[in-house]
Amino acid sequence: MTNHSYPSKLLEEAVEQFSRLPGIGRKTAFRLVFHLLRRPVDEVDSFSHAIVQLRKNVKYCKQCNSISDDEICMVCADHSRDQSVVCVVESIKEVISIEATGQFSGVYHVLGGLISPIDGVGPSDLSIELLESRLSSGTIKELILALSPTPEGDTTAFYLFRKFEKYSLTFTTIARGIPIGDEIEYTDSLTLGKSILHRVPFGYGKD
Amino acid sequence: MTNHSYPSKLLEEAVEQFSRLPGIGRKTAFRLVFHLLRRPVDEVDSFSHAIVQLRKNVKYCKQCNSISDDEICMVCADHSRDQSVVCVVESIKEVISIEATGQFSGVYHVLGGLISPIDGVGPSDLSIELLESRLSSGTIKELILALSPTPEGDTTAFYLFRKFEKYSLTFTTIARGIPIGDEIEYTDSLTLGKSILHRVPFGYGKD
What we know:
By secondary structure, chain A is an alpha/beta fold. Helices cover 39% and strands 12% of the residues of chain A. The first copy, chain A, folds into three domains: 9-57, Helicase, Ruva Protein, domain 3, CATH 1.10.8; 80-169, 3-Layer(aba) Sandwich (Dna Topoisomerase Vi A Subunit, Chain: A, domain 2), CATH 3.40.1360; 175-207, no CATH class.
């Protein structure tokens, strides 16, 4: 008896493609493919089109290295944003997260990674030269180093600080503290320690 | 200040498309899109192509209604399979699961759903006429009703039994019992009851 793990090669190929995505196993891949199979052809076309269009036509902002549809991204092109305050982030993921807070009126600089000798990522692999050219124009007053509190994030932040301290800039970093809703009792001591060291006047941030 | 939830419309559209898939939220959708963004263009093309090809060229086997690349699916076309034993299933999901066991040498019939008055699915919405035409050819000796033990599955199984009992057929259903590895103590009483009622000779199924 011959066993037919998939009744269709087309089906098998589609499942195979989906299961290459991160965090998608074969069962989930099959479920997604099965869903698409039952959708109208034009809907499946739109799905496929959106992905290919993004990959083929994606641009990176010539000022901040964020993903953009044009030469300059929407944030950099927005005159209501404060161009003198630049928030340095690892990737567009952080741009999207910070934009979602609605609390930041400056602009961004997307490094495209973090310095990580283990992974062979050095300063020249990141958009640090582009950042220096922005700084040398003299319009930037504050650099917010909004990098993850990991060895790679800390190394990168320190590297940027040493490299750019010659410019007359204010260097800041995002506040570490107890997340809203969390209980003091269950907060790790490193975070709790930072939250005491960096305490703020009572009533601050109530806006 | 204008807020830019996504720095790119292309990115937003791709995330939107992914988040329409079942069980994929916006965060997961973004993670998947971000992954594809960093893959080579031809890899993203292959992904997109596989999905569109499947949707546009998918065929349904004229004999068993399973997904197929040709008029007749690989299982039905396989002469090493016993064409006299037909396993009736809800969808191709069950075909794939049963094929994966390597324990079934017969063929299938895919109903394409279950009778469910609440969802407006009646017998005429399923491939029951096609099954009857197969039965009237006289080559089929056994019908395995491998439907889920839900009200819809039971209703459909009973409907098929009543409709086709006029043919000289053996009707069977898949065994219910304690899954291998499960403990008797924690098995629900309905399953445990079935497993005692349908007990089999000791040593059976050791192959």
